[in-house]
Amino acid sequence: MKKRVFSGIQPTGEIHIGRYLGAIRHWVSMQDNYDSIICVVDLHAITVPQDPRLLKGRIREFAGLLLAAGIDAERSILFVQSHVSAHSELAWILNCFIPMGWMQRMTQFKEKSVKQKEQVSVGLFDYPALMAADILLYDTDVVPVGEDQKQHVELARDAAQRFNNIYGETFVLPEPVIPDVGARIMGLDDPNKKMSGSEMGVGHSIALLDSPDVIRSKIMKATTDSHRDVVFDESRPGIFNLLTIYQIITGEGKKEIESRFAGKGYGDLKKALAEVVVEVLRPLQERYRQITADPGHIDAILKSGAEKARPLAVRTLARVKEKVGLG
Ligand code: ATP
Ligand code: LTN
């Protein structure tokens, strides 16, 4: 039997190349060897304020981009979190087993709540419990995510273990899978900050639907430093980030890349990088146009995805309720 892989993406902001290189591209390649489930996590999106009209459109747009990036609805289950109510139900039950102390250690909450002060929602604090429910409902073995989500997957694993210790074998223990290269793509404008969809400054990120000219202009303006030589040096975060993106897309080794740019400057790297990014996104953008040409297509895929996910989730939820003595 194939192992189960589950991962999710929040339909907020734009899909940038950080999300693509750090996570989505791995979901696509894992479809061959794993039983794969990909979820557009709209309930997570509302942990911070959202415009309802934009949110609904984004859910479809994100699903379309995942399909265009290579998620195959025949081989993977692609669905929207709020279409399967078991996610909310299990999140509540898990809430009652996850100690406050564990949640208080979550670094993402600490970072995100600084900006919102007292207005921060209880949902944002509880975000990892809902994420644990997403993962545990499907007897997930592996969770491919970027570096920033590792702590959340570990909390899901700890929650599963705690529940199993109290009630006996109930949940499969999931493991995070973090890529060796590209687990944390940095902002082009500020290479000390993670490239983020909620960070909307012009020149911060490259969106999957950016035109070739926009991509070229953003990369040429990317923040670097005053050195000249093009080498992988982590103490020069700007150039290191550009080289990392180049490395992932071309699949070349570090030494090979350094010798390609020996005697050349940052400008040469930027020009070459812009072209490889344009070329990797070109077919994806073309597929996105085809997919969205039929307005009913994405909705039909999401409906069928929820129909496939629901019975799996309901079965786990029933097992949990039985153990806890509910109903
Ligand atoms: P944001 O910072 O925009 O709020 P996020 O990480 O919270 O982004 P998602 O879009 O849900 O939001 O992330 C989808 C996947 O992409 C996750 O596995 C996440 O770890 C990964 N990811 C997001 N940004 C990056 C990045 N800059 N580098 C590598 N992986 C990333
Ligand atoms: N919190 C994740 C999105 C997410 C997720 C999941 C990822 C929600 N539920 C379950 C993996 C498994 C993020 O990237 N911001």
| Average pLDDT rating | 96
List the ligand species: adenosine-5'-triphosphate, L-tryptophanamide
Q: Main sheet: which strands, in order across? A: 1-2-3
Query: What is the terminal separation in angstroms?
Result: 33 Å
Structural class: mainly alpha
Helix percent band: 55-70%
Superfamily at the CATH H level of the largest domain?
Answer: HUPs
CATH class membership of the largest domain: Alpha Beta
Question: Can you walk me through this structure?
Answer:
The protein has two domains: 4-178 and 295-324, HUPs (Rossmann fold, 3-Layer(aba) Sandwich), CATH 3.40.50.620; 212-289, Tyrosyl-Transfer RNA Synthetase, CATH 1.10.240. It is built from 13 helices and five strands. Helix 4 runs parallel beside helix 13 (295-324). It is globular and about 70 Å long. The chain has helices at residues 17-30, 42-45, 52-69, 86-95, 100-104, 107-116, 122-136, 150-167, 212-220, 237-250, 254-260, 266-293, 295-324; strands at 4-9, 35-40, 76-80, 142-144, 175-177. Strands 1-2-3 form a three-stranded parallel sheet. A two-stranded parallel ribbon has the order 4-5. 56% of the residues lie in helices and 7% in strands. Residues 6-8, 10, 41, 44, 131, 134-135, 143, 145, 149, 152 line the site of L-tryptophanamide.
What is the structure about, briefly put?
This protein has helices at residues 17-30, 42-45, 52-69, 86-95, 100-104, 107-116, 122-136, 150-167, 212-220, 237-250, 254-260, 266-293, 295-324, and strands at residues 4-9, 35-40, 76-80, 142-144, 175-177.
